[in-house]
Amino acid sequence: MMLPGFNDKQEEEDTGPSVDSEIQSERIEARRLRIQKRVEALRRAELGQDGLEKDDVKEELSKSRKQIEESRLRLTKLRNDGFDLVTSIRVAGDARENARRLEEEDAKRIRKEKLESEAKAGQERFEEITKKWETSLQKEIPQDLYEMLKQQKDACDLMIEEKNKLISDFEHELKVKDDTYVKDLKKQAEDIDLMIERMDEQVKSQTREYRNELNQIENAFVTERKELLDLHKSKWEGMMGGRAEKEEEYMKKRDERVERYEKDLQDLRVKDAEEYNQLKIKLETDVQILEQQLQQMRATYQLNQEKLEYNFQVLKKRDEENTITKSQQKRKITRLQDVLNNLKIKLKKQELQYKQENLQLTEDYKRVTEQFRELQKKSKHFMTADARKFTDVWIMNEQESKELLFKAVAQDRLIHEQQLGLRYQEPDLEFTTNVGPVMSEAAKKKGVPASVVVREVMSLGSEAGGAEVPDEASEAEHKKSAILQKLNPNTIKAILELLCDESGFLVESKLLKLLAPLGKDDQSLMKLDAIFEALHVDNEDDIHRLATYFINNQTAESSGETPAADVAAPVVDAATEERADSAAVDEEEVDGELARLADGADVQSERSAVSDSALTQLIHPNDCLRSLRAFVEDTKTAQTSSGKQPQFKITNTDGRDSTDDAAYWQKYTQVIDGKKEKLWDALVDSLDKYSETLQSRAHLLTETDAPAYPECRVENVASSIYQLQSQRRVGNTANSSSAVGRCATMKFIPL
C-alpha cells in the first residue's frame, strides 16, 4: 500500500514538469506550478467548505467556553455572598469590641481622675494633720493635748474611711466588669456557633452548585464531542473516497510512464554503442602517437648517458682534490688538540682553586649560621621577656580594674535594693572572665610554625636534637604540636625522611654542595626547610595535609583520610629540568651523586619494609612525585587566595593585633553609664539633706530630754511620727500609704 504523501508527490510529477528534471526551464516551471497550486488551495480553504467547518467548530467551542464562564460567574457570586454572610458576624463583633474599648477608656480616665483627686485631697489632709502635730507639741496641758490627739485620730479615721470607700467603689466596678466579661463570652460563643452554622451551610450550598455546574459543563463537552466526531467522520469518508480515485488514476499514469521509460532505455542502448565505436577509433590513434614519442625518448636517453660519463670524470678529479684537503685538515686538528689539552690543564687548576674557595665559604657559612642561631636565641629570649612583662603589667591593671568594677557594681546593687527599693538588673560582666592580653581570632587560629614541628619530630630518638627543641618549645609552650596528636610521631618522622630523600630535585644544587660538610640531621633540617618553602608549607596544618598524601591507600581508607590522586607527567618534566640545570658538574661529582641516590634508595627500601609492618603504611618511594603533584594542585588555589606571610619572621609585642584593646578597656567604663552617675549624684544630695535633717532632730531631742516621764512619752511618739515621715519621703507611694496606716492605728496612753 502506497503512502498518501508519496502518491501526492508522484501525482505532481506525472501531471507536469518535475523539479528533479535535468532541464532548468522544466524545474522552474515545476516550481511555479507548485506555488500556484498552494495559492489555489489556500484560496479554496478560505472560501470553500473548510472555512464553514472551521467556523462551526469555533462556534461550538465558544458555546462550551461560554458555559464555563457563566458557571464561574455564578459560583463566584455564590462564594462572595457566603463570605459576606459569614464575615458580617465578625464585623458586628468588632464593632461591639470597639465600643467596649471606648467605654473602657472613658471609665479608665474617670478612675484616673478620681484617684488623682483623692490622692490630692488625702495629701492635703495629711499635711494638715502633720501641721497640727507641730502645734500639739507646743501644748503643755495634758487635757488639751488629749483633745488634740483625739481630733488627730478622728481625722485619720476619716481619711482611712474615704480610702476604704474608694476601694469598695472600685471593687463594685470590678464585679460589674466581671459580669460584663461573662456576658461577652456568652455572646462570642453564640456568634461562633452562628458563624460555624453559616459556614457549614455555605459549604453545602457551594458543593451542590459545583456539582450542578460541573454536570452542565460535562453535558456541553459531551454534546460538542459528539458533533465533532460526526463532522470528522464525514470528512474522513470523503477523503478516503478521493484517495481511492487518486490511486486508480495513479496506476494508469504509472503504466504509461513504464512504457515511456522502456522506450528511453532502448534509445540509450543505441546511443552508447555509437559512442563506444567512436572512442575505440580515437584510442587506436593515440597509441600510434605514443609509440612515436617512445622512439624520441630513447634517443634522448642515449644523449644523457654520454653526458653522465663526462660528469663522472669531472667528479673523480674533484675527489682527489678533496683527499688532499682532508689531510691538511687532520694536521690542523692535531695542532688544535694540543691546545685543548693545555686548556684542560688550566681548567683543572681553576677547579682546584674553586674547591678551596668553596671550602672556605662553607666554613664562613657555618660560622655565620652559628652566629645567626645565637642571635635568634637572644632575640627569642628578649621577646619572651618582653611578652612576659607585658602580660604581667596587663594582668595587674586588669585585676585592679576588676576589683574597682566589682566594688562599683556591689555599691550600685545596694543603692537599688536598699535605698531605692528597686529590683537590681545585673550588668553584662562576661568580659571579666578574660585573663591576660586580648587575642584576636586570627591569633587564636594561628598554628605552630612548620620549622618548630620539623625540629620537634626529627629530634625524636636523637640526643643532639633534643638540646635544641626545648628552646622552640619554651617559645610556644601554650600551643603544642597538634599534629603529634593526630598521627604517630614515628610515622611523621618516616614521612619527613621519605620526603627529604625523594624530593632532592626541589633543593638547589648550590645548597646541596654547601650542606655536604654538615651532619645528617642538619642536612635533613635544611633540606626540609627548602622543600617546605618550595611547596609553601608554613604550619603544622599544612604538614598534616601533606602527610595524608604519603599514607598508603588502604591505611588512608581505614583511618578516614583522603588518598592522594594520580599525577601526570609534568612533575617528571619539572624534575628533569631541575636536574638539567645542575648538569654542569664534572663526572666525579655525578658518580658520587648517583652513588648517594642509590644508597638512599636502598635505605628507603629498608625503611619502607620496616614501616609496612607498623600500623600506618607509607606509599612506595616511586609514588612520591605523584603525591607531591597532587598536594601542589590541591593547594595552589588556596595558597594564591590566602596571601600567606613569610615563614621565617621574628615577631614581638609590637606586632600583636591591638585593635581590640581599646574596646576591651572601654567595657569597664561602660558598666556604670552616665545615667547611673546622675542617679548617684541625686541620691548623694538627697542623703546629705536627710543627714542634716536627722542631725537637727537629734539636736532637738537632746534638748527635750529634761521634762518628766509623760512628756518623754509624748516626745517619743512625736519622734516616731517624724521618722515615719522621713521614710515616706525616701520610699515610694506604697510605703507612704502603709506608714500613714501605721500612724493612724498607733495606741496612745492617756494621761
Highlighted features:
751 residues, mainly alpha, 0% strand, flat
Specify the number of helices: 21
Number of strands: 0
The residue ranges in which pLDDT falls below 50 over 5 or more consecutive positions are: 1-14, 49-60, 463-481, 555-615, 643-651, 707-714, 724-751
Taken in chain order, the helices and strands follow as HHHHHHHHHHHHHHHHHHHHH
Q: What's the rounded overall pLDDT mean?
A: 74
Intertermini distance: 144 Å
Estimated helix fraction: over 70%
User: Structural class, please?
Assistant: mainly alpha
Outline type = flat
Largest sheet: none
Question: What amount of the residues lies in strands?
Answer: under 5%
Radius of gyration: 59 Å
Domain Dynein regulatory complex protein 1 C-terminal: 663-705
Pfam family, one: NYD-SP28_assoc
Organism: Bugula neritina
Protein name: DRC1
List the helices and strands and how they pair.
Elements: H1 4-15, H2 24-47, H3 49-137, H4 142-419, H5 441-445, H6 450-458, H7 463-466, H8 469-475, H9 483-486, H10 489-502, H11 509-515, H12 520-535, H13 540-548, H14 553-559, H15 570-581, H16 587-612, H17 624-642, H18 661-670, H19 674-703, H20 709-730, H21 733-744
Helix pairs in contact: 1-4, 2-3, 3-4, 6-12, 10-12, 10-16, 20-21
Summarize the entry for a quick read:
Residues 637-653 have a biased composition (Polar residues). Helices cover 82% and strands 0% of the residues.
